[in-house]
Amino acid sequence: MQQAYGSLPAGWHLEKLKFYASVRNSNVDKTISDDEEPVQLCNYTDVYYNDRITRDLEFMQGSATESEIEKFQLKRGQVIITKDSEGWDDIGIPALVTEDMPDVLCGYHLSVFEPGPDLDGAFLAWLCRSDPLNDQFKLGANGVTRYGLGQYPMKNALVALPPIESQRRIARFLDEKTAQIDGLIEKKRALLDGLAEKRQVLITRAVTKGLNPDAPMKPSGIDWLGDIPAHWELLPLKRLLADGIGLQMGPFGGMLTNLPDYETGFKLYGQENTISGDFTRGRRWVEEERFNELKRYQLVPGDLVITRKGSLGSCRRVPDGIQPGITDSDTIRIRPNHSRLLSEWALALLHEAHFVSEQISAERRGAILSGLNTTVVGNLLFTAPPVDEQNRILRFLSRTLSRDDIIVAKVKETIARLVEYRSALITAAVTGMFTEAQ
């Protein structure tokens, strides 16, 4: 790890963190006990989503013993980091405590770094965001599906330290420069949000009103939809699907036990594919014999798959050339009757159109348990113009939206470069490579 810091400027030195800060892993849980003192808890999400811990945050209520209160109360200059996570990249995320808060404790899944007199807390927070120190935290974490960072790798992590006044100057420099970069990123993301809203409005308008402003209209019979073209139909999705096999929820329970851990050529597709749109992802397999037994669940190009749990209502079209496979129980397969409903039209309605997403949201709000089933999906109301008109509208949307897609790609590329520059700037400043910071 010494190589990660390179040659340090004069007056800098490389030391283990434990010589300059105390490290404590919190075990204060959010449960409330009558025989303990009521407290407020700085929780995992408080640290994950905020660079600074201030009084403005809404802390969770909990309780703690006297020794826990003494050990884990928040003090100005402390740095709190995430020490447990389901994702490797989420280990070691820091937040700086900006003021004394004796009634707020550091909660579970977090660690407290309390700097000594020769280490500035703000500088330590920036150190934790730099590649040389954060990489040490990640490498020190243990686990497979869930990762945990113990005290030893934190205490023995190497940090490059200049004199205390230089630390403070560097921290102020990074506060200012990263705020400027974050402002630019925020503007770019606002532009993306605006383009996404424009896209949804355009698609919703096209799939509910058509392209001809002079076309005769008729009441849809639904207040929130208004009028639709007189020659269109408004039908439940189930009436626009292939007979008998149009809607199929993935197999449950014992049908998918003892899956092989080797590639069989027959995949089990699920949310990882439907949310990302990438049907090459995933390493879940079924044997050929079981695949043949469960062929009614098979995915074929042109099908749609919609998530029924978690990220509710995410929908994708199954592309050409996928490996043979079946859906899992967290998804629903939709197979259109292509003489009445094009896959791309159904996808535009399910994935992009506001009036269908509102129907899904209403079902979710009204459900005792959040989730979709074939009955709910089958009863979603769809606009159904003639197939040739569906084609014309889809071609119009493709031409019109392609220009915005180019802009979106460029904006995302700019954001990625700004994020990369921000990270490089932090690392350069806290390792002495950026002289302006000193």
TrEMBL record:
EC number: 3.1.21.-
Domain called Type I restriction modification DNA specificity: residue spans: 66-185
Record carries keyword Hydrolase: yes
Protein's UniProt keywords contain Nuclease: yes
MF term (GO), any: endonuclease activity
Keyword terms, alphabetized: DNA-binding, Endonuclease, Hydrolase, Nuclease, Restriction system
Pfam families, per the entry: Methylase_S (PF01420)
Similarity comment text for this entry: Belongs to the type-I restriction system S methylase family.
Protein name: Restriction endonuclease subunit S
